[in-house]
Design the sequence.
């Protein structure tokens, strides 16, 4: 026999459904930036949302979006190296660089908060961000830099 659902369980479910309805799109975008491919991003987000749901009662007073984003970051940061993203706009970045860029430039998380979340010194986070942005601005290895965007040959 299944246990009877209490009013508190129904309230938790309704609160969580409202949260996911409002935040799932943006969280999926964050997960996609981290994972690099949609299927991996969906798996990453599903795991983070499952953890958020399991901890919903203990989160009273906490921001559920920040909690879920932190879970995304934790799960991405601790993935085996063989699962490093190979596609997407941030594919040339390492794990820490990717995390710093997504948190700092997309999510607008302060360097101090990013450093605390990743367990790094603030100056290391700043250096990682500068290096990542420089890497993203430079042409990929093996590609010629084209400044005009127009074809130079006729034919």
Sequence:
């Amino acid at each position: 026999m299944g246990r009877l659902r209490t009013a508190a369980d129904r309230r938790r479910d309704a609160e969580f459904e409202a949260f996911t309805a409002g935040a799932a799109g943006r969280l999926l975008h964050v997960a996609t930036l981290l994972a690099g491919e949609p299927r991996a991003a969906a798996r990453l987000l599903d795991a983070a949302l499952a953890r958020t749901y399991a901890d919903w009662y203990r989160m009273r007073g906490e921001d559920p979006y920040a909690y879920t984003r932190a879970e995304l970051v934790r799960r991405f940061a601790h993935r085996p190296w063989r699962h490093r993203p190979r596609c997407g706009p941030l594919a040339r970045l390492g794990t820490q660089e990717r995390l710093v860029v997504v948190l700092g430039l997309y999510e607008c998380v302060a360097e101090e908060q990013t450093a605390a979340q990743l367990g790094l010194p603030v100056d290391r986070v700043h250096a990682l961000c500068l290096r990542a942005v420089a890497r993203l601005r430079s042409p990929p290895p093996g590609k010629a830099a084209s400044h005009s965007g127009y074809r130079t040959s006729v034919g």
